[in-house]
Amino acid sequence: MTVVIGFEGSANKIGIGIIRDGEVLSNPRRTYITPPGQGFMPSDTARHHRAVILTVLKEALDQAGLKPADIDCVAYTKGPGMGAPLVTVALVARTVAQLWGKPLLGVNHCVGHIEMGRLITKANNPTVLYVSGGNTQVIAYSERRYRIFGETIDIAVGNCLDRFARVIKISNDPSPGYNIEQMAKKGSQYVELPYTVKGMDVSFSGILSYIEVSSAHKMLSSGQCTAEDLCFSLQETLFSMLVEITERAMAHCGSQEVLIVGGVGCNLRLQEMMDVMCKERGAKLFATDERFCIDNGAMIAQAGWEMFRSGHVTELKDSWITQRSLCLFTTWRTPWVI
Amino acid sequence: MMAVSEFLSRAELLKQGAEARVYRVQLLGRPTIVKERFPKLYRHPELDKKLTHRRTVQEVRSILRCRRAGIPAPSLYFVDYTSHCIFMEDVVNSCTVRDHIALLQRSDSPQQLEHLEHLAEQVGRLLAQMHDEDVIHGDLTTSNILLRAPGSGSGSELVLIDFGLSYISALPEDKGVDLYVLEKAFLSTHPHTEPLFEKLLQSYTCSSPRATAVINKLDEVRLRGRKRSMVG
Ligand SMILES: Nc1ncnc2c1ncn2[C@@H]1O[C@H](COP(=O)(O)OP(=O)(O)O)[C@@H](O)[C@H]1O
Ligand SMILES: [Mg+2]
């Protein structure tokens, strides 16, 4: 049996999870929530993570009923993400690894999402839609690499949702995306917004500037539509673009499975639309709920588990972090069965 | 409209692509491809109607514009805007550039590299011609370029298809993004082909006096991609 503890803190969540051979033993998490109209800044986020990380660590061990001696490997997010929070969490991971005398393992955040999704859903060889605050990518695995087939050419979908929420002052608690989803259910009138798809890529900056450059306020104050209608129309437009590029990548790769991961992936309307598309082409959709879609420690533990089992460790001198990701990232696994 | 859908119900479905069903039929004795943009039920009906109509119109418009300029694209036979069906020439004895590259990569012929490079140069030249007509394809992949009479060496000819996302623009930025989309699709579809794509761009550059501005924009767009922060 192999037990891996995973530390995640690349954005505004701090999570620590423990995995034992595919079983999630614990996965506690805290979120840094900012007031309406405000985003989270790196240094404040790092301060938040620093303040709670030891409590979360204790929770993770207690809920799993394990002692440090039971752990085989300490995995942490090496990036991509925000510098200051990444450094904070990596520092704690490095420290406990040395205290406990366990090997250390740096994990790519995106790979964590994908591996957790595969573990929970049992998807075999899916086309992956990875949608979060900082990422919008359509990824498929071929020739021993995760390859990005489509992505945003400007801002991420989660970033677009967050900034829309700031413009019309929607609460950040528990997250802007969640509140937009709830409001969208009460919207009915469809307002046309810019729709920009370029092959397997999308662009969201047009929508955002359309909304930011007073359109939203004008439409709302003139009574042309309600905030709920705007949430509804925004979701319909953004998610149609995402489903379209996912379908294009599927047609291109001949794939019959879709896996949605990342924070925006727990949006039920997105899942519903993707499911309609999949059914229509005889494909199958795999999705997870907020426990695993949203950044968490178990996903880092799971990817770490796979890497550790195939002989990878990260030496202390190589235990850096990075804010950006390479376009293609090699993996440790043998190719998925195709 | 009834007539078209009845006609298609008996036709051979060639492919369900990303946004359309592609059928192979005979129309007045000619081998014909029918591209049917059927309603996408996942999206809002109003949005669906707009997109489907816009894309059928764009596809027809750009194919005609290319053909008028002598750029190879299928002949158009008939368009039905009610059922959103385009009836066009079936490019017989053809395969996609994608399949052809894969075939060449698998072969162990001593001329493999030479053939691949020749093909990349042909594609570069064709795209330069297309951009000189201010046609932005919008979905450039090696699946959307056909190779007529593959294997016949210099007698083979490229044909551009799938113009649903196309539009007309003279801006180097739009042309640069068009190449960026191709570059990513190319490199993710055909691993280890960076030098080959470089050849394609070289040939593009040599084929159009306006290429330098486009390549500069391509560099800018690439840089933007690399600099994008990826938080969360
Ligand atoms: N005119 C044609 N002649 C021969 N084959 C074609 C023609 N048009 C399309 N095809 C085939 O059908 C596939 C899908 O057509 P395409 O127009 O690219 O639709 P989609 O938007 O669904 O990708 C092409 O990759 C090609 O193999
Ligand atoms: Mg196509």
CATH superfamily of the largest domain in chain A: ATPase, nucleotide binding domain
Structure classification of chain B: alpha+beta
Mean of residue pLDDT values of chain B: 92
Helix content of chain A: 40-55%
Strand order of the largest sheet of chain B: 1-2-3-5-4
Quaternary arrangement of the chains shown? Answer: heterodimer
Assign a percent range to the helix content of chain B.
40-55%
Q: Globular, elongated, flat, extended or rod-shaped: what is the shape of chain B?
A: globular
- What's the number of helices of chain A? 10
Strand content of chain A: 15-25%
CATH class of the largest domain in chain A: Alpha Beta
Identify every distinct bound molecule in the structure, by name, code or SMILES. Answer: adenosine-5'-diphosphate, magnesium ion
Largest interface: A-B, 55 and 39 residues
Encode the helix/strand succession of chain B as letters: HEEEHEEEHHEEEEHHH
CATH architecture of the largest domain in chain A: 2-Layer Sandwich
* DSSP strand tally of chain B: 10
Cα(first) to Cα(last) distance of chain B is 48 Å
Assign an overall shape of chain A.
globular
Secondary-structure class of chain A: alpha/beta
